[in-house]
Amino acid sequence: MAANSWKEILDGQMPEDWSHEIDIFEGQMELRRQGKLDEKVFAETRLRRGVYGQRYDNGQRHDGIQTQTLDFPSGDLTKGPNTVWDAPGMQRIKVPFGGLTPDQLDVLAQLAEEYSDHILHVTTRQDFQLHYVHIEDTPDIMRRLAAVGITTREACGNVVRNVTACPLAGVCRDETFDVSPYAKAMTFFLLGHDDTQDFGRKFKVAFSGCGDNPCGLVKMHDLGLLAKTKVIDGEEKRGFAIYVGGGLGAVPHQAKLLTDFLPEEQILPLSQAISRVFARLGEKKNRNRARIKFLVSQLGIEQFRRLVFEEMESLPEDVRWTEFIEDAHQHVDNPLKSGSSLNGQTPLEGFTEWYATNVYHQRQAGYHVVTINLPLGDISSHQAYHLADIARKYVGDNIRTTVEQNIILRWVAGEDLVALYRELKAIGLGEPGAGTIVDITTCPGTDTCKLGIASSRGLAGELRERLTAKSATLPDAIKDLKIKISGCFNSCGQHHVADIGFFGNSRRAGNYKVPHFQVVLGGQWDENAASFGLAFGAVPAKAVPDVLDAITERYVAERERGERFQAWVSRLGKAEIRNMLEPFMNVPDYEVDPSFYSDWGDSRQFSIGDIGVGECAGEVVSLFSIEIAKAESQIFDAMIALDEGDYQAADESAYKAMLLGARALIRTQLLDVSEDPDDIVQEFRTRFYDTELFYDKFAKGKFGRYLFARHENPTVNPDEDSAHRLIEEAQLFIESCHDTEARVNGVIVA
Prior knowledge:
By secondary structure, this protein is an alpha+beta fold. The strands form four sheets. The protein has a five-stranded antiparallel beta sheet.
């Protein structure tokens, strides 16, 4: 990005070259339409403009907010469009650190109304998404956004994604200093930078103002910056603790500390140096190993640190590195009104409950942050229009989105809280429960995501409805628990850092595929996502509400005084938790309860098609089902060993689980297979991997490499991180075995 563009952005103006970039994209669209631009090249081009293809589900949304039949091209698209031209897709819109103005919200509402399905969706990266958007309309959308200072550039693709930050930055009672101007500076420094254009995968950055609270989640990011101060030569200096190589995804990695304190003037050159090292040494061919977390793990943090700081020394000087710092020190928000108190106003019905969960007292006396709790992260265009007007009336430009898929209004004067609540309630945005167990985070799942396995949004809606119905009687011990749901392994719903997480998968029951969710317990949301939970087993989707009740009721009954959920999970132990879940893992016969054979929010049921039912006395259980159960038992043994601190045993059990999973597949073709690991790996490679029979919807068979890597390069002296990681990989490998067997043997899928 040119220096003049940088200055325009920092001054709040639209850069002149944004319009030119959109013109170029529109030209590339025409070239692709004429067949003069390679599809793979165009795919990366449109992704870097935030334009996605999406899953097509009969033109309906089943989210409880609005269901609208959309006008799609003729033809049978139920199996997914062949190209982005065949059916509407998704437009992602970057909102750096979640900062938003009423004018920008107005435009977003207009676009949702005119080009989408009247719904704005807030993501876990503080972005907005519009679904059911025709690609022909995207240049017009981009131009209208650019006119109010919003870009879609690099909202997707193998680039630096939206830079997130604590939405309370500047008003938080615990922060070291306001990280907002630093997040903004890094956003636009890295946007379009030459050194960020050759990554093998995406790169995510986050800022946090303090270490204890989770708002920034710096320890689960590719690059995390935690605000700190340090006295140097008698003067207090601003800086950051720097974390690298974190990430969730299919196999989560905890970020490593690169340096305990980096002066503020060095954060931009450091980000540039990290980008160069990642572009030069990061994996490019195998996308499943192409995130920077794998590079940090491969090199080790010491070697990675050396390479980065050596790279910093070689960088050409750039005035942008420091020109924002003076403004950062002078940065202050502009409240619309003077601070004040409630002054004993008579509260409206429901105000007390809303105030208890949705209002945060700023460090500035007389001011408050109000959280608008958005079910499933959705706000209608009608609501957005009204919210923009409400913001103009009470807070001005002080709107932000959150990583928990909500919207907050900052700098609300105390005397305005009752009136604000009245107006929010009138447009359906006055629900209490923000930040509580009712406030569930979820990815799009099977509603619109091509990788979705199970309906995360459908499940979240069901759980939210049930929890809301009994919110008045929920025990205090569980009110603040975090529930997060992903539709597949990829943790877009952040299930790994939830107290109680779920991610979608499927299992075979007779001649059917049945939607399931893995139960993940013990993640830590606080302290910037300090640790990750582990999966304890898959339960049918329709059993999840009962599973949640069983877990929370037992926690309330058995917890010690002041014992937090993560500590209770650890004390209870993995074996006992597994015992608690096992009664919910069974799937009733289709004739007994056909509801188990459809997903939440989707009335369609699986069909047995031409597959008949045997006339024997009982249902035949396949050899694969028996054999794969041994693998799942072995992975559980690995989890127990991890829990007990025996990392060598955990590593070996996870490896053995993969061998047993591979052997279960092999025995569907060859009964007399050796138990020798070399023979199992070779037979698996020959019969399933090389033939591309080994397959899963998420990674198209590449999880097979986890077995090869561990077989060929056993870990010497495994530690907690490496053992935890291998267990995650083994679970994914076993899930792929299930997918492969079901696909090869023609199990019916809806």
